[in-house]
Every structure is written in structure tokens, then in C-alpha cells.
Amino acid sequence: MADEKQTVLIIEDDLDVADMLNAYFRVQGYEVLTVNWGQDGIDATLSSHPDLIILDIRLPDIDGFEVAERIRTNRRTENIPIIFLTEKRHRNDRVRGLELGADDYITKPFDIQELRLRVRNSLRRSSQGALSNPITNLPEGAAVDERVQELLTTAQDWAIMLISIQHWEAFREAYGFVASDDVLRAVSLMVQNTIRDEGGSEDFLGHFGPTTFILVTAPTHVDSLTERITNRLSQSIDYFYPVKDRDSGRSIPSRLNVRVAVLDAAEAAPLQDLDALKTALVRKIA
Prior knowledge:
Mean pLDDT: 87
CATH topology of the largest domain: Alpha-Beta Plaits
Distance between the termini: 48 Å
Low-confidence stretches: none
Structural class: alpha/beta
Number of strands: 9
Helix content: 40-55%
Largest sheet: 5 strands, parallel
Number of domains: 2
CATH architecture of the largest domain: 2-Layer Sandwich
Order of helices and strands: EHEHEHEHEHHEHHEEHHEHH
Radius of gyration: 20 Å
Strand content: 15-25%
CATH superfamily of the largest domain: Reverse transcriptase/Diguanylate cyclase domain
Strand order of the largest sheet: 2-1-3-4-5
Number of helices: 12
Oligomer: single chain
Shape: globular
């Protein structure tokens, strides 16, 4: 018996873009539903329960953020992967999307092959219970939530380090998704090697977001880990760029860099649940 087709819901008010995505993903073997209004998207999600949603932020009735929030607060639809598709590039928009549980964020104009791979990866994560990232193979989603939840009930002293790759979206737009995925893999390996050298045997590393790593460690390791990670990555940044740009001597706009933020057990003590802790972490790295 043939495998059942997965369903993609496209919520997009630009009719040309909606028609193009509809035709493209049907050729790729998906069932595709398209709507042009936010409320219609919510209704279609409830009635059809798609496997994934491609959601534009700028819609004629309610914006994509509200659509995502209403989808995430309904128990029947809260776990459906959402990929934001938008012209907006500001960091605050990306942060808000992550706070709402977006699985990915792609800006227009976009590479259709890249979008196809992002859809495939999100569906793969969803079918696997969102336990590992398909690019780095590090834990993410439910696996990370479970580890962080444990911290709220433990009496032990602990610290959470967030390691965020800044300007990764600009790099991806300039050099493509293959090169940007290589950056994620390289950074994850460097962080893992640093944990081996400077961390502890019980340290936990995973994905807090697509380009943000979460490291649970002991407070006594934070300073040495931060220094070594920052130094190693800052020394390696140039090598992610093509030689022609690296050696040209010109300034690279929105150059890749790494930001590290820390939340310790004492600071997290007033927080009551996992959602509150994750919100605090988002604000730390924003």
C-alpha cells in the first residue's frame, strides 16, 4: 500500500505566491491546501489538521502571529509545525515567532529548494517526535523541554548557557542554505569539543532554537566554557566565508558572530513552570 501523503497548509494572501507553492508542493508529492486569510487558515487547521503550515505574517485580516498563537493554544493543533514565510527581517519579528513556537522562519524572496528542505526537515522532526535536529543531530523540542523541566524540580545548583549564532539569516541569504547548514554543523562540533575539554560529564547540549544552542552545565564551568567557546568561534568565523570575500579586505555587513547568555538556578527560582523558564531564556538572548 502506498504511503499516505502528508498535507501542507499554505496561508498566504499573495495569490501568485500561493498558486506557485500549491503547484510546486503538489509535484513534490504533498497534499496541499491554500487559503488567503488568517481566520480561514485557523478554520482549515481545525477542520483538516494538516501535517505542516506555511504561514505568511502579513495577512489582510489578522496577522500571522495571531494565527500562530491561536493554533498553539488549541490542544488539537498545538503541535503542528509552522514555518513563517515573510518579508519582515527584523530581529523582534524572529524573536516573537520563536516565542510562539515557530519551527522555522524564511524571508521573501526565498529559494524554493531551500523551502522544500525546510518543509521536509520540519516534517521529519515532527514524525520523530521532535527529538533531534536533522542538521546537527543534537536533541531539540520535547527532548530539550524534558531536560529543562527537570531543572525546575532539582535542588542542585545549575546554569543554562544559550549560544546564539547572530546574523545567520543574513549569511543564509547571501551564501545559500547548504553553506548556512554547514555553519550550524561546524558550530555544534566546536561547542561539543569545548564541553569535552572544559565541561562536565553530566552536561547537556541541545537546540533551543534553529540557530541557538542550549547547554546545561554546572555554574563552576560557565566562565571557562564561555571564554573558550567565544574564542574558538570568533577565530573560526572568517573561514565560513568564501575565500574571495575573506581575502578581499572589505567589510562584511551583518557578519556572523556568537552571543552567549547565562541563566542560573538562583535567577530562575521565582519561575513556576517550563513556559516561564523558556520565556526568560528567550529574553536573555534577544
